[in-house]
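Hi X.,

You mentioned you wanted examples for the new student's onboarding notes, showing what a folding record looks like when two proteins sit in one file. Here is a clean example. The first protein comes first, with its sequence line followed by its structure tokens.
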Amino acid sequence: AVVSTQSTGAAPAAAAAAPATAAEPEPEPVVEEKTSFDVKLLGINPSMKIKLIKAVKEALPELNLVAAKKLVEGAPCTVKEKVPKADAEALKAKLSKFGGDVSLE
């Protein structure tokens, strides 16, 4: 009696698992396209530092000249967080034009 109880206990579990696996294939992971980016200044071209500081100050009007200088000299650092893709790419292009090594994350 004990042997038949064990076999009937295991059989329904195996039978229940098999149809669920066959009926529902594993969903493929959905790759979401990022909509907001962090703009990071990784490095600077020392010969263009003053122009880069001015570009950062222009891009971030809340910073004064001293704060923009500290931000540039503190590279690698995050310049702006959670920026829409178009704005992030525009900022990257602008900072790159003035000697910044910029990445979007």
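Then the second protein repeats the pattern, sequence line and then tokens:
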Amino acid sequence: MSGEEAAAQQPKTEEQKQDTKPEEDKQNEQQPPPAQEAEKPQDEASYKSLVLSGYGGYDKVKLQVKKGELVPKAGEVLVRVKACGLNFADLMGRQGLYDRLPSPPVTPGMECSGIVEALGEGVTDRKLGDKVIVMNRAGMWQEVVTVLTSHTFLMPEGMTFEEAAAISVNYITAYMMIFDFGNLRPNQSILIHMAAGGVGIAATQLCQTVKDVTIFGTSSASKHDAIKENGVTHTIDYRTMDYVDEIRKLSPKGVDIVLDPLGGSDTCKAFNLLKPMGKLITYGAANLLTGQKKNLMAVAKTWWNQFSINAMQLLQSNKAVCGYHLGYLDEEMELVGGVLSKILDLYKQGKIKPRVDSVWPFQQVGDAMRQMQERKNIGKVILVPEAEKEEKKEEN
């Protein structure tokens, strides 16, 4: 072996070792240790929510993403929302005409349906995965909600989430007016205004659970086939006809029950249409809504024409006047729950079935409200957190 070869095989000095380290090792020395990478903050939990930012037009309700994670308190459940109901009260609330809605900013919505995802301390009557109908004073137009278990009701087998979001407010309202206040009996007659709306559809179906009831229903002419198919006996186009005259032609003495969601002068007409021992149930003031925003002239006109009667006049008339407002029964969930239980039994028997007019994603809440406020709907308008996926549409 030559001297040069021997020198080449001699151990390298420490300095030579450092200079000849693989390039990969040098890069590793410049990178932070793995522990530091693990300390990166995780994505914060969030959920979609529709928020009324102030009173006014359709643009006042906007989709927001709220940060944080909802956790159910003792006695509550966390529900993953699948569908929400749109009600006339929500339209009035947007204009500042519904006093049961807390002041903005607030999430509207009185009803929804979904799946139980978490249980609060002490909850034993619900379990994870339960499909439920949910009712609350407000706050239901969200991707997830927390509510007391007493505000949730198990969905019947075979019921869709859209049907579940359409059944509580409308059918409870109709049921309590017709049976608790109205005491509807066979061979009686009833006037149902806005017969193509959510309450109108519900009331018509419930009336058919009693034999030989004559139903007068008002709607625009384009909806007459639909409400007749739903069970209305005599259809009236309120836009071109005087409904009082039309009813008097067929029933000179009038009707036994009037459901009045209109208010103002129409309440006076309703009272005068009643037969002796008849009942007027007033449950709204739809005449207040004439456009996107509050109309002070409409408010003044409705107030000026509001129905008024004293005790002596009522006594002499042999008629009854009742007022119904589900929003003021939010502390009476045992009473309300008992009514919903009867309604769900009727659903299971096939005697009633919610009619869904249309389904809108949260992003199109303005269009959904316009659909209802312009009286284009036949049945319930539904909101859903997510738009239907394209794949599902293709499969169908």
